[in-house]
TrEMBL record:
Residues 41-193 form the Aspartate/ornithine carbamoyltransferase carbamoyl-P binding domain. Pfam families: OTCace, OTCace_N. Keywords: Transferase. This is Putative carbamoyltransferase YgeW. InterPro entries: Asp/Orn_carbamoyltranf_P-bd, Asp/Orn_carbamoylTrfase, Asp/Orn_carbamoylTrfase_sf, Asp_carbamoyltransf_Asp/Orn-bd, Carbamoyltransferase_YgeW. One of its GO terms (molecular function) is amino acid binding. PANTHER family: ORNITHINE CARBAMOYLTRANSFERASE, MITOCHONDRIAL, ORNITHINE TRANSCARBAMYLASE, MITOCHONDRIAL. GO terms for biological process: citrulline biosynthetic process; L-arginine biosynthetic process via ornithine. Belongs to the aspartate/ornithine carbamoyltransferase superfamily. It comes from Oribacterium sinus F0268. Residues 228-390 form the Aspartate/ornithine carbamoyltransferase Asp/Orn-binding domain. The gene is ygeW.
Amino acid sequence: MGLYRINTFLKEIKMDKKQQFEELVKEIKGLKTDKMYLNDFFLTWEKSDDELKAVWDVADALRNLRERNISTKVFDSGLGISLFRDNSTRTRFSFASACNLLGLEVQDLDEGKSQVAHGETVRETANMISFMADVIGIRDDMYIGKGNAYMHEVADSVEAGHKDGVLEQRPTLVNLQCDIDHPTQCMADALHVIHEMGGIENLKGKKLAMTWAYSPSYGKPLSVPQGVIGLFTRLGMEVVLAHPEGYDVMKDVVDVAEKNAKESGGSFKVTNDMKEAFQGADIVYPKSWAPFAAMEKRTNLYGEGDTEGIKALEKELLAQNAQHKDWACTEEMMKLTKDGKALYMHCLPADITGVSCKEGEVDATVFDRYRDPLYKEASYKPYVIAAMILLEKFKDPAKVLEELQKRGQDRIFEA
């Protein structure tokens, strides 16, 4: 049955928001989510189809309750710990919003102002911040082979702390972007597409172009393009990854995408031609990233403390990028898409030609035309993160949602 049925049902039959909520809860009851309970969310391809569908359904259900002014607080107290090892606006506020939505208070760990800066171990830090923590959200995306490994080390540390009786509860972890995947972004992207296309069943056979695009900066993470091809290939779509020669992503993730496409009845292709990728595409996602080989080299240089080598690599990569300024989402490129009206997507912030930079990923006219859909795309992330947390912390998510509606506590007091 699955999510395919629920979206068709809600589309064909006009329902009020309460009826829609009840159908979502009914759907969640039919999904197998027991392995998510007291577990972490690292990579989308580590989760089952039911678990991914549950995240989308719970996200929609939480949004439904909030839109009806019903409080979704499932915690009376507790902490959501955030740790950002890279800059963030959207994801930082999305995590804070998600925690607040569920009743958790957010405490951001600034490593520069903590004992981590003085050599405190990961195991010690993880336990010291977790005495009253229910969830930990981490962004660590800058160094190949480091980010996801660090998240696992934190998870293992709090698991050991709980087993040893140091922690009364074991905080679960949400990956807010690592070197491999950006699951909260890509799950929010997918939920946006599901709504834009009128249901997940309508994604089958749709063409998505995940393409590299020129940026005047270097070193952008690989996790968004990798996350997109690792997730959307599970939805029966025709996914095309396009980039100039030499801008490869991780081979392991390409292998995941190929396997997913075969199992879902979709397709996956890699090309060095942006026009080929855009031709007839229903969805385009042009975004810059650094070559995998260069990111590996940068990680090694930082590990060696080779500042001159890092400067030389940066200069080399900027020059390499400059050879591909024609890789941009222009009005002419958009005309190649299906009916010239493909859904343009971006994780934001985009490098906008003539606005944020002289030459960039996307023309200002294209970006302006899609500004509202882009902001809507971003709006799903707080609910997706909240759904991940709820599924990690509660054994019976459907019952929790039902009880929230039954309780009917106003989010905003109305006299």
